[in-house]
Amino acid sequence: MKLEEKVMKEVDSWNIQIEKLNGEEVKYHDLVKPIFYSIGIDITRKIIGIFKGKIVGIDGNSYLELNLEEAIKRFRLDYVLSHLNNYDFNISETARQIAAEKPESMRIIILNILKENNLNIHELKENKERYIKAPNAIKTEVLDFAEKEIMRYKEFVNYKLLKKLITKNSREIAKRFAKIIINPVEDRKSALMPYLALDFKAAQEAFKSKYLKDQFYKNNMNSRRAAEASGKEYGTYRTALYLRGIKTTDLRKTRIKKLVKTAKI
Predict the structure, then answer these.
(1) Cross-strand pairs, 21
(2) pLDDT tens-digit profile of 128-140?
(3) Could you tell me the pTM of the whole model?
């Protein structure tokens, strides 16, 4: 889903009314919603532009919102950065810890991953707080920025009651827009955790398998839609499942069992 679509979906979920504007009750969709579409798109784009140097991979996308190749590229970076952070950004030590076989080969892989993402180890080591920040600290920073931007818009709104609406709800509106960008980053961090105990090769393969299965579930167990979301031809997607010993019939049975169990509860 594109950023603009995410913003519109979020704004559509709000329930806001401005009463007695020009003597009439104005429903949310009549005036406020189109204004917040524009404000939200502008602010979320600014968050990405300003904070991309502070949060690597900030673009409002979780793994499943990317095609398979993009998701693997993002996963490799997230995995490597997490381990580099654990070993004080020492590439040689990190390579020894996550290599399946030859540490020197892993060292080259790490350097290539950083290079393809326009990063270098010296910049990371000297400014690690810029790239690896505590979730709560960066959330607050993004939220403060979003609220400040929202309040700037207030100065250009002519309607007094709309200004009042923005002023009164600026923090909540900021939270709604900020989460569009921050939540996917946090989702990726949570999704990354099970793989950190695996070596790089095993982690990447496990990630691919889970991604393929999760796309199948996300797309209502429709293989063709899952293939499209993965950026693969239908036959290529099915082959990828087959090579990993994954059967769609088994996936359907697993999902049905979970649904039945949930229904009993």
Answers:
(1) 24
(2) 766 655 556 677 8
(3) 0.77
* Angle formed by the axes of helices 103-116 and 91-98, nearest 10°: 120
pLDDT by residue (tens digit) across 210-239?
A: 999 999 999 999 999 999 999 999 999 999
For residue 40, CA distances in Å to 9, 116, 150, 254 come to 11, 30, 9, 39
Q: How far is CA 144 from CA 109, 120, 149, 170, 259, in A?
A: 37, 29, 9, 10, 41
Domain boundaries, the chain: 3-54+133-190, 64-132, 219-264
Which residue is it, tokens 């955790």? Answer: 193
